[in-house]
Backbone:
């Protein structure tokens, strides 16, 4: 059925083109039925892309190797789960997934906002249509997933690195994040095109932005866990360009989610917010470009292709046109109020924004410099981890501190007396933690000690916020403590959900600092019966095992583990030899201690024919807090995202009374 | 091949119908202008936003004061301007609502 897939994508292309041309004309000339027709075109584009995606999925699952894509990324021996994930395992499928998610978001945004923001939607449609048009053009004319051939007997299989359960969720979540940032971008541009600088574009996109940001955050953590388990170098984040490509839009979106609160609460930073949205979306395009163009050499980049120039041209077009639009609308974006004090909640948000943007741009420079250097001088130049780690400390540690300071400072201004009331106990808790850690020997890493002290400060300030809020709520409304707590959170979801997200970031910081600043590593060649000591652990190499798996041969070194003379079982580390793919992958052995959060991480660097193995072993304290942070992050995001009936009623009333929420 | 082309054709036809739906539903619409908020509606929306912003700030200030985050003197200096801001926006909105009600009788 490749013809159906191709036809469906041509239909998507046509509908996207129609959404751009008819949508812009309808918005310009204020034609109601034409505007509705353009909106329907976006909804139809989603339907057509869904059909194309179904065709590709069926071809993959049925091992229809007459599809070039199916033959290049699957094989008959590949387990079904990975056959499905091969949808995004290659370039053409990834671009189709981008288009599918984009048109899905666009259809959802149109359907949910066509009443409350009808004059905005009229301009949002051509912007979303323009982005869809670009991706539809790519999958129709440049990188079609429906190219055909005479079917070979078997396919080439999937890259072994991608044959990991995390790869079934990590790329779709990243794409949900990348593509989701198109919605706030389109609404911001729509608002500027319509010359509407009220809050509706922010209200309409708040949840879309949060969904995209959450997906991007969780997707990155899953990717880090994949790298930790699958790539087998002993870490989870290596400042790889493709990893950075996902981090940068997340940081920009984080800055936006904070600064947008200043616009909502004080009517300030309108220009800054629009620029942040442009930055976040452009960085998401840049991330896709880095991953899919093959311009950088990365363990996460699985492609070499010719779509790079198209992407670069599109990114330039998006940046130039959106900046031109923002500058042309500067007069209507001026704020009417000013920052009253440098010691206020909005000021801490502003500092947070400056640090986040500085960190984002520093990472961007680290990613772009080797590309630019090679383009200008023709020789490769690498930016090492030292560069990134330095700036992470310079900008990241103050950011961590600000997470604790921000919630303790009131809006508008705060006197010394107010600050003393709020700071006493978190400051005391941080000081005590720092001194205890110093006494325990944590001073071996000064950045680690600072990170832990700041983390204690943030956790104490969050705990204090919850405790004082619950007490005040109980004093006001009575009832039990749990009832007061749930009322407090339920009535202030964004505030307290945000605090839970902050707690997740603190857990992440503790996990990163613990596993990188205080880790232990030993390596050595062992024959059966020989042992290696690492920290408190003693590892004894027992034997080598070779066994068949579904589509590979597994070789494992069985290693016995003891701590303080007590047996803790065995770990297995080794290699997989994939038959169809004709590649070998490293398979690490990990023993997690869920009580202390520590991991024993074993890599079999070499498995020798004489039965000896060369092992590299890490002890990584607190590393499991990084993964636990993911669950806390998700919980906080869900609390923040959960619909608030009172707020929705208030907004509905506001728009109906202002006469902007009637039949479209 | 033929089935694929047939299904492709059906998909295209369905999309054409979807796109034409607004015209099929209202083939001879007497009013085809996109209902864009005028100056009055925009001003109303702006005032509503000012009012909601001031009321939300008051609510937040009350909570911060009750939880002990804002000292009494800070509370007293902040609450007055916020109440004035909210009251001015409410008054302006009421005036607009009153004049809007009066217009039909005057006419």
Residues:
């Amino acid at each position: 059925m490749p013809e159906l897939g191709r036809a469906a994508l041509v239909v998507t292309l046509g509908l996207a083109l129609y959404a751009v041309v008819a949508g812009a004309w309808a918005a310009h000339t204020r034609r109601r039925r034409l505007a509705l027709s353009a909106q329907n075109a976006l909804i139809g584009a989603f339907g057509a892309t869904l059909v194309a995606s179904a065709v590709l999925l069926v071809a993959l699952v049925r091992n229809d190797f007459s599809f070039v894509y199916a033959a290049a990324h699957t094989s008959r021996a590949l387990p079904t789960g990975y056959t499905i994930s091969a949808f995004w395992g290659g370039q053409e499928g990834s671009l189709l997934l981008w288009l599918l998610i984009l048109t899905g978001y666009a259809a959802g945004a149109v359907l949910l906002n066509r009443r409350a923001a009808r004059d905005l939607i009229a301009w949002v449609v051509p912007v979303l249509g323009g982005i869809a048009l670009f991706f539809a053009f790519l999958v129709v004319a440049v990188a079609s997933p429906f190219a055909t051939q005479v079917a070979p007997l078997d396919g080439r299989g999937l890259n072994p690195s991608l044959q990991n359960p995390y790869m079934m969720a990590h790329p779709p979540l990243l794409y949900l994040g990348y593509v989701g940032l198109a919605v706030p971008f389109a609404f911001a541009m729509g608002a500027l095109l319509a010359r509407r600088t009220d809050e509706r574009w922010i209200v309409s996109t708040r949840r879309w932005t949060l969904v995209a940001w959450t997906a991007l955050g969780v997707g990155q953590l899953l990717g880090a866990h994949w790298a930790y388990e699958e790539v087998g170098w002993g870490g989870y984040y290596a400042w790889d360009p493709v990893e950075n490509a996902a981090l940068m839009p997340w940081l920009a979106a984080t800055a936006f989610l904070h600064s947008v609160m200043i616009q909502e609460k004080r009517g300030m930073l309108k220009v800054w917010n629009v620029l942040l949205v442009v930055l976040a979306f452009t960085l998401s395009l840049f991330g896709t470009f880095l991953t899919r163009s093959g311009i950088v050499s990365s363990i996460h980049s699985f492609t070499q292709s010719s779509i790079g120039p198209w992407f670069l041209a599109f990114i330039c077009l998006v940046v130039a046109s959106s900046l031109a639009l923002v500058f042309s609308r500067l007069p209507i974006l001026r704020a009417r109020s000013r920052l009253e004090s440098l010691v206020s909640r909005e000021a801490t948000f502003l500092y947070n924004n400056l640090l986040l943007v500085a960190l984002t741009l520093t990472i961007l420079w680290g990613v772009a410099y080797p590309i630019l250097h090679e383009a200008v001088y023709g020789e490769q130049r690498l930016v090492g981890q030292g560069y990134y780690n330095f700036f992470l400390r310079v900008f990241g540690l103050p950011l961590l501190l600000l997470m604790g300071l921000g919630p303790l400072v009131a809006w508008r201004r705060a006197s010394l007396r107010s600050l003393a009331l709020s700071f006493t106990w978190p400051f005391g808790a941080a000081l005590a933690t720092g001194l205890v850690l110093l006494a325990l020997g944590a001073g071996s890493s000064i950045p680690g000690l600072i990170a832990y002290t700041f983390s204690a400060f943030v956790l104490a300030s969050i705990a204090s916020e919850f405790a004082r809020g619950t007490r005040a709520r109980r004093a006001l409304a009575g009832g039990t403590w749990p009832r007061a707590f749930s009322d407090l959170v339920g009535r202030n979801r964004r505030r307290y959900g945000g605090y839970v997200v902050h707690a997740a970031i603190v857990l992440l910081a503790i996990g990163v600092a613990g596993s990188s600043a205080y880790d232990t590593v030993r390596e050595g060649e062992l024959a059966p019966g020989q042992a290696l000591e690492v920290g408190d652990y003693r590892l004894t190499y027992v034997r080598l095992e070779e066994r068949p798996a579904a589509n590979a041969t597994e070789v494992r070194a069985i290693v016995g583990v003891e701590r303080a003379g007590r047996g803790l079982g065995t770990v297995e580390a080794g290699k997989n030899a994939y038959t169809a793919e004709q590649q070998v992958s490293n398979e690490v052995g990990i023993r997690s201690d869920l009580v202390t959060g520590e991991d024993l991480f074993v890599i079999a660097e070499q498995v020798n024919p004489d039965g000896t193995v060369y092992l590299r072993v890490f002890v990584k304290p607190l590393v499991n807090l990084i993964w636990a942070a993911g669950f806390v992050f998700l919980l906080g995001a869900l609390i923040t995202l959960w619909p608030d009936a009172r707020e929705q009623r208030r907004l509905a009333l506001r728009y109906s009374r202002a006469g902007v929420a009637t039949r479209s | 091949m033929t089935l694929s082309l047939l299904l492709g054709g059906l998909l295209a036809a369905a999309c054409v119908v979807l796109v034409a739906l607004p015209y099929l539903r209202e083939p001879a619409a007497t009013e085809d202008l996109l209902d864009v908020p005028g100056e009055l509606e925009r001003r109303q929306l702006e005032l509503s936003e000012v009012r909601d912003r001031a009321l939300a700030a008051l609510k937040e200030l009350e909570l911060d004061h009750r939880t002990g985050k804002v000292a009494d003197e800070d509370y007293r200096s902040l609450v007055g301007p916020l109440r004035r801001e909210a009251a001015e926006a409410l008054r302006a909105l009421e005036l607009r609502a009153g004049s809007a009600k009066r217009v039909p009788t005057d006419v």
In short: Chain B touches chain A through 51 residues (CB under 8 Å).
